[in-house]
Design brief:
This protein has helices at residues 10-35, 46-100, 107-130, 191-244, 248-275, 279-282, and strands at residues 132-133, 136-137, 144-150, 157-163. It has six helices and four strands. Helix content is 67%, strand content 6%. The strands form two sheets. A two-stranded antiparallel sheet has the order 1-2. Strands 3-4 form a two-stranded antiparallel ribbon. It has two domains: 10-36 and 247-282; 52-244, f41 fragment of flagellin, N-terminal domain (Up-down Bundle).
Length: 284
């Protein structure tokens, strides 16, 4: 049996240290249960926190990139709609030119056909200059659309650039020799002029179709990129969850264990404090 002393209660100090450690563990368990996260501070898992934060940055960048691509598709759809309307106008011009080219049309009738053709030329130019998206003109000299997509890393960056260019009655696509297709100087005042106009109008229809095809291909590319990025977001979010999420079954078991240890620790500390009370009996 050890000597009875009153200067230091070693048993009480040991019980108090154990109780303090258990209290910190209990607080950590309660925090995990309340937040649903295994890592709540850098002290919980420094390496895991760094990885999870990096994954979160990837997901954030990809989420915005999906929105960028979606907005880009929307802009391309507006452009395609405008070009579709121009195609309708050109088809109307084909009808007018074909009629004017016929020898059974009088000069006064050709004058009326020319007036309608001039209106079509003006409307095509208006569509090209007035078509906007988010307050910005879609068509114009050197106009292009650049969609930036990234996962926040330099290696995971991708851009899709769509050249739209200028669209008016003098710029309706390009020929094989990269010459702008124009119907601006055409008129229907004579049969021969109408025949020449018909040739240019048909070239313009083909030019607009080619531009619409390019826009459609870019739209499909953006849609495919969106699907890939959505898949990345799902996988990266899952990886982040595996690092950050608390195992609720394990934490619940820990809570029961820590609660019991806290109660036994308090009881042990109380018993250690009572041990020195026996010294008083020697003085009675």
């Amino acid at each position: 049996m050890g000597a009875l002393t009153v200067l230091n209660n070693i048993a009480a100090l040991e019980a108090q240290n154990s109780l303090s450690t258990n209290q910190m563990n209990l607080n950590s368990t309660l925090q995990a249960l309340s937040t649903g996260q295994r890592i709540n501070t850098g002290a919980d898992d420094p390496a895991g926190l760094a990885i999870a934060n990096g994954l979160e940055a990837n997901v954030t960048a990809l989420t915005q990139s999906v929105q960028n691509a979606t907005d880009g598709v929307g802009m391309l759809q507006v452009a395609d709609g405008a070009l579709s309307q121009i195609t309708s106008l050109l088809n109307s011009a084909v009808s007018l030119a074909t009629e004017s080219a016929s020898g059974n049309v009088s000069n006064s009738q050709r004058t009326a056909l020319q007036a309608e053709f001039a209106s079509i030329q003006t409307e095509i130019t208006n569509i090209g200059s007035n078509t906007t998206y988010n307050g910005q003109a879609i068509f114009g000299s050197g106009a292009s659309l650049n969609i930036y997509m990234s996962d926040s890393t330099s290696a995971g960056t991708n851009s899709v650039t769509v050249s739209l260019g200028q669209v008016d009655d003098a710029h309706l696509g390009v020929t094989a020799g990269s010459t702008a297709i124009s119907i601006a100087s055409n008129d229907l005042t004579t049969a021969s002029d109408a025949q020449a106009a018909l040739t240019n109008i048909n070239e313009a229809i083909a030019g607009i179709a080619s531009l619409r095809g390019s826009i459609g291909a870019s739209s499909n590319q953006l849609s495919a990129a969106t699907s890939v990025m959505n898949n990345q977001i799902t996988n990266l979010t899952s990886a982040e969850n595996n690092i950050m999420d608390a195992n609720m079954g394990t934490e619940t078991a820990n809570l029961s264990q820590q609660s019991i240890l806290q109660q036994t620790g308090i009881a042990a500390l109380q018993q250690a404090n009572q041990m020195q009370q026996s010294v008083l009996k020697l003085l009675q």
